[in-house]
Hints:
Strand content: under 5%
Oligomer: single chain
Number of helices: 4
Structural class: mainly alpha
Largest sheet: none
Bound molecules: protoporphyrin IX containing FE
Amino acid sequence: MEFVFHLVVVLHFVGLALLLGAFLVQVKDPNKTVTRWMWDGALTQLVTGVVMVGMMSSGILGDEEKAEVNNTKIAVKLVIVLIITVLAFVGKKKPAPQVGLWATIGLLTLANVVIAVFW
Ligand code: HEM
């Protein structure tokens, strides 16, 4: 089960790369907008995050991965990713440029990285 858990962790980083990468590659683009990659990344983070929390709290993991789940931290990350998901859904349907939505999604993604690492 540890192997499956680690695979999900890897996918969590792939989702992060999709979200943050789609934001960063547009920094110098005058037509900044919400791309399909952001939507894919948001869904990946949502699904992999929930699966990891489920696995961690279920007791199916060995001692090494049994670390307590910080429910407050997870709740904050969940709310942020839900906001990102809604913004990405709305933004990907609108014509470019969507600078406000692009920037908000990027900053919220960075906020979730900071929360994940420092909290
Ligand atoms: C934009 C959304 C998200 C970003 C950018 C993000 C980022 C990260 C990062 C950078 C880590 C590694 C930090 C570390 O282990 O020190 C991490 C781990 C983790 N994230 Fe997220 N996350 C997001 C959404 C979520 C959501 C929605 C959940 C749960 C519902 C979640 C649950 C977790 C868990 C449980 C870990 C720990 C994995 C482990 O212990 O190996 N994440 N996240």
